[in-house]
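fwd from M.: "can u put these together and see what the complex looks like"

so here's what she sent:
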Amino acid sequence: MNPVLQVEDLKKHFPAQGGRTVHAVNGVSFSIAAGETLGVVGESGSGKSTIGRAVIRLLKPTAGRIRFQGRDITHLPESACRPLRAEMQMVFQDPWSALNPRVRIGDLIAEPLLLHTKSSRSERQDRAEHLARRVRLTTELLTRYPAELSGGQLQRVCIARAIATQPKLIVLDEPTSSLDLSVRAGILELLAELKAETGVAMMFISHDLGTVKLISDRIMVLYLGGMVEYAPAARVFAQPAHPYSQALMSAHLPADPEAVLRRHVLEGEIPSPIALPPGCHFASRCPVAVPACQETAPELRAVHGDAQHQAACLRIAEGANRIPETAHG
Amino acid sequence: MTLLRVEDLHTHFISRDLDNQIRVARALNGVSFALEPGRILGLVGETGAGKSLTATSIMGLLRPPARVVGGRALFEGRDLLAMPEAEVNALRGRDISLVVQSPKSSLDPLTRIGDQLIRIHRAHRKASEKAARERAVEMLASLGIPDPARRMAAWPHELSGGMAQRVLIALALMNAPRLLIADEPTTGLDVTVQAQILDLLRDLVRRTGIGAMIITHDLGVVAHYCDEMAVMYAGAIVESGPVRQVFANPSHPYTANLIGATPERLRLGGPRTVGGPPPNLFRLPEGCAYRDRCPQAGADCATPPPDVALGAGHVARCHRVAA
């Protein structure tokens, strides 16, 4: 079966002051199948959100190819993208600013139906009620305004809007980051149910490693706009191959005092995406880098012959990619 | 001596509505906890539980309409809430330091960071400009800031989030305080930076024997960096105790629900988590404030719940907990 989304060598550069260029995304390739959740992790400035926006064509890619349900949408004009968005939806981090404060909740949920379907007012109203119940909002909220709802309720409204047109792909950009723990749990449970019910493909962008681990089937680790590792979720956490993934995973604090931490401290600051260093972008901070890393840009390769697990590091082939253990109190 | 002992702290927001009726939001309803030197206490809870308000109440930084209406905050035996303003001023920034949220907006944007460090030092200690400058450079170096002498001349806007947070911690530590209160010290920072900042804080507490209180909503931070924890709900501490013990045996239904909602414990497709907005502080129910959301609530929950001691300093405030 064809994947819902197929991205090849995607690049996105932004112009910066003085004729310089911000290299936000530098050649990433991945695919998402129906019913699959791809987790995208990385620190600020790693290009997570840019990738999310580019794949649903809120941004125009600089280079590469994006195929949605087999169709090349890389250079589709905006007018042709609009009808396509019935099938590809996005949920943003901040539900307070994602919803028009002057529109009632019921109309907000019905809005995608108004834009993308030929349906009567009463049909849309029925459907909005159904969607509200599906995301576990009481239907009396439909006549309220966004300011009267809590953050968790607003994020449910955003999810109801996203699923209204039965899309094949939903890009979720930090959908739970601004929510409290118990509210966040409810949203994650809802997303898991929706995926099981509808088989929608999801791209889940987050810096919260615990959440990504829980909800994702596969994970893509980004550093400075490049993919450093791409593997099944459990594998990335248990056996991260790329030194950056190792450092990132070691900084994750599971909410369990009995979990043993293996700490790898990274020295130095992340290089500027305006003046990217040659070779491996992580080499300047990498504890296991050798001079060759500064010269040759590593490609994504299968780790130990396992095509499911890919990482971009020269030192994996020599078996020298593990950061040595340091004592941690 | 106990470094900080807070007893039955009550803070209300008292205002008048459009009909000129007095409205009272009971934001803190009897907060009590203690912090020993050399220990790290994690104060956790969700939005609106009163975590930050607890810190600002203790530090005497409340602005109207918020007002402390009852309770004591004993710092080394002296009640901060009953002290004349001048004495509190002398303690604040010297013996008690606060690291606030959002480092970028907490630094003076028009002063070089070195001058900010020197200023806070000389405001409280008799030191020459030169001695203060040397101390500031040392402090930046000890917080892992590369090339500290040159960084002294940096402006706040030139710093990354992690650097700004380190400078803020340096400011808090310039006068060698005995109590450090850090309000969400790592929220908004990347995980690798978060780990570095927390390592620094913990090493500092272990090395110098000061007491620290970390206010956070992140149970991962509590699990790995705190010795004791106190869980807040609707302006009261519902459960407190040694971190490992509370995680292993969460006894208040709210704590159990909160820990159960962490990604580590959450089972997608399992029983649903109880979530929801915090109760209305203008109309807090009598008795247990959690009873509307509590799956175990009964008729007796309409009366104030007792603090039940569970051994080794583990306490839960609930009718359903058996000692």
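replying to her w this: The radius of gyration of chain B is 21 Å.
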